[in-house]
Sequence to fold (121 residues):
Amino acid sequence: MSLTLEERQPRTDMEITSADYGETDAVITAEGNMGEYGRVYASYHLSYNADRSGGTYTAQGRGFIDYDTIASGGGVGVWRREGALIHMDELININDGTQNLGKIVIDPIKRTMIMDVYVLS
Fold:
């Protein structure tokens, strides 16, 4: 069985603005322009698995479309580290009722996040 998904928008490049690594979790923040969501600010709270090579996470984001319109979204996902790169898969609920599947790759050396977003509903 295969699943075909429609892109919600073109691939987005975001900038990592901070990374705070704690004993039990890490918080990563990013910002960038995300097509229909406008200027987006997002935070990711990553919990570690036993060997700290992956785990689960929660996400929150706000998209400033214009001075009167703000999109708000929250989600959950799983992450894994492959070398220096962090790969993340997430399900996001947006305040307008839409749902997205997100696939993210973080490059902490370049301070970049590449995000592909697909329509679930």
The chain has no helices and eight strands.
